[in-house]
Amino acid sequence: MLVLTGPVTRDEVTGLCDDLRGLLEVSGFGIVVVDVGGLGPPGLWAVELLARLELTARRAGGRTRLRAADPALRALLDLVGLRFQMERQVEQGEPAGGVEEAVQTGDTAL
Question: What letter would DSSP give residue 96?
Answer without folding.
Answer: P
